[in-house]
Specification:
Elements lengths: L10 E3 L9 E3 L3 H24 L4 H7 L1 E2 L2 E2 L2 H23 L2 H21 L5 H22 L10 H8 L2 H4 L1
Antiparallel strand pairs: 1-2, 3-4
Length: 170
C-alpha cells in the first residue's frame, strides 16, 4: 500500500496481526522459472567444482580419463551442449512466446533430470546437490505444466491509473 492509501499494481496486501500495511510483490511465472533455472545451473557448477576437490579426480581428468569415461573433444562437445541447456533456459524462459516457452521448459527440465540421475556420482556431496538440482527441475516442470493461457499485459496507462490517488484521476 502506498502512503496515499492506494495499492500499486502487481502487489498483494498481506493482512495479518500487526502487518496490515505489508505489501508483497507478485513475481511473474517467467521470472520464477528463469530464477529456478539459475538455481539448477549454479548447483550443477558447484557439484563439478566440489567433485574436482575429491582426491585423484584432477589427475584422472588431466590424464584424459575419468572413471570409465575417455575425455575426447567429442565428449567435451556433448558435455558443453548438455550443460548449455540450463544456461540457455535462463534467457529463453523470459524471451520465447508463452506456448513455446512452456514446452521448452518442460522438455529441458525433464532432460536435465535424466542427465543429473544418469551421469551422476555416488559421492555424498553429489547426491545432495543432485537432489537440489532435481527438486529445482521438478519445480520448473510443475510451473511450466500449470502455466496456462495467454499472458495478459496491462497497458502502461492502466498501471499508472492504479497507482495514482483517485483525486488525481478526476
Amino acid at each position: 500500500m502506498n502512503t496515499n492509501g492506494t495499492v500499486a499494481a502487481g502487489t498483494d496486501v498481506v493482512g495479518s496481526a500487526g502487518m496490515e500495511n505489508m505489501a508483497t510483490e507478485r513475481i511473474g511465472i517467467r521470472a520464477r522459472i528463469s530464477g529456478m533455472w539459475a538455481f539448477v545451473m549454479l548447483n550443477m557448477i558447484f557439484a563439478d567444482i566440489l567433485s574436482f576437490m575429491s582426491p585423484g579426480v584432477l589427475q584422472q581428468i588431466m590424464s584424459g580419463h575419468a572413471d570409465e569415461i575417455t575425455i575426447t573433444p567429442g565428449f567435451l562437445l556433448v558435455a558443453a551442449m548438455i550443460t548449455e541447456v540450463p544456461i540457455a533456459m535462463v534467457v529463453l524462459s523470459l524471451m520465447l512466446p508463452q506456448r513455446v516457452a512452456r514446452w521448452a521448459n518442460l522438455v529441458a527440465a525433464l532432460l536435465t533430470i535424466v542427465y543429473v540421475i544418469g551421469l551422476g556420482s555416488a559421492a555424498p556431496h553429489y547426491i545432495f546437490i543432485a537432489g537440489m538440482e532435481i527438486l529445482g527441475s521438478i519445480l520448473i516442470v510443475w510451473s511450466a505444466w500449470t502455466w496456462r493461457g495467454s499472458e495478459q499485459r496491462k497497458p502502461v496507462r492502466s498501471l499508472e491509473a492504479e497507482t495514482l490517488p483517485r483525486e488525481a484521476l478526476a
